[in-house]
Amino acid sequence: xxxxxxxxxxxxxxxxLLPIYLEVISKLKxxxxxxxxxxxxxxxxxxxxxxxxxxxxxxxxxDDKYFAFTNATVVIAKSGTNNFEIAKAKAPFSICYKVNLFxxxxxxxxVKTKYVNLINIxxxxxxxxxxxxxxxxxxxxxxxxxxxxTDDTYRKEQIIAQNLYLKEFVNNNQDPSxxxxxxxxxxxKPF
Length: 191
Fold this sequence. Notes:
Blueprint: E1 7-10, H1 18-30, E2 36-40, H2 46-52, E3 57-59, H3 62-71, E4 75-77, H4 82-88, E5 93-97, H5 101-110, H6 118-123, E6 129-132, H7 138-150, H8 152-170, H9 176-187
Parallel strand pairs: 1-2, 1-4, 2-3, 4-5, 5-6
């Protein structure tokens, strides 16, 4: 969310998280932090994001997205394959996601894992903070983000840990997306 260049990176989020992210930004600024918000997104969300974040750096360009990840001190992201891109850029991050209750219950019945982030799944422990469903609250996200932004040791420890497990996906000469898909298939409970 914040970078060495004072950059806050909110990665490609669904509009349902918009009020939560707005509150996180407000709370971080209330704690005295100064930063620039960078938001890589899809073209279909650009007007909504511009209206909500008039001072943000907003892009739909892939190169700009990677530049934002590489320069971010911390990133708040949705769960997905972009998590590999963020980890590869050596940016500490957390993931946030919230779905409707029916979808959440259905997923809990179908998926046999405690985590949604693939690095956490591989590690069998939480390395990347997950703010999913009932934990997807501005206060919790703000406190974690504040720690990543202000505690160099904490931030560096996360980067080291995420890179350790990222190597298992990248260093075996296989496509990380294919490996991720194979890991996801293992997590679905058979009916």
